[in-house]
Amino acid sequence: MADRITISLPSGMLSILDGLTKELNTTRSGAIAELIRREQNNRIEQELAKGYIELAKFNKEEAELAFPSQAEVVINETR
After folding, report:
1. pLDDT tens for each residue of 11-40
2. In a 3-state reduction of DSSP, which class is residue 79?
3. What dihedral angle (degrees, nearest 10) is formed by the CA atoms of 62, 65, 67, 70?
4. Helix (DSSP H) and strand (DSSP E) numbers for the chain
5. Digit-coded pLDDT (tens) for 38-71
6. How many whole angstroms separate alpha carbon 69 and alpha carbon 50?
7. Is the distance from CB of 24 to CB of 31 less than 8 angstroms?
8. Half-sphere exposure of residue 17, counting CA atoms within 13 Å on the CB side?
9. CB atoms < 10 A from the CB of 16, how many?
């Protein structure tokens, strides 16, 4: 069940919203809900991207720490 709210928008924004409702073939409520969903998805994607970058940095640091040991093993095995 949907909750009912009342919002106020400047007339220029209302025109934009009405254009969006036509583009999305939905109601004003549907367009606003879609915009909120998109914003939430964008925020999640930004957080994931930030996490992936941090994880990549961590993995790189770990690899750089382990590389000398791995290189030593490879050298010793080829002798």
Report:
1. 899 999 999 999 999 999 999 999 999 999
2. coil
3. -100
4. 2, 0
5. 999 999 999 999 999 999 998 888 888 777 766 6
6. 30
7. yes
8. 18
9. 13
Which among 7, 12, 50, 49 has a CA at the least distance from the CA of 29?
Answer: 7
Q: What pTM did the predictor assign?
A: 0.67
Report the distance separating Cα 35 and Cα 9, nearest Å: 15
> CA 21 to CA 24: how far, in whole Å?
5
Contact indicator for 44, 38 with CB cutoff of 8 Å: no
- The pLDDT score that the predictor gives to residue 67 is 74
Q: Given the structure tokens 């007339």, which residue do they identify?
A: 11
Give the pLDDT confidence score for residue 68 in this predicted structure. 73
User: What tokens does 75 get?
Assistant: 């050298």
Q: How many C-beta atoms surround the C-beta of residue 34 within 10 A?
A: 14
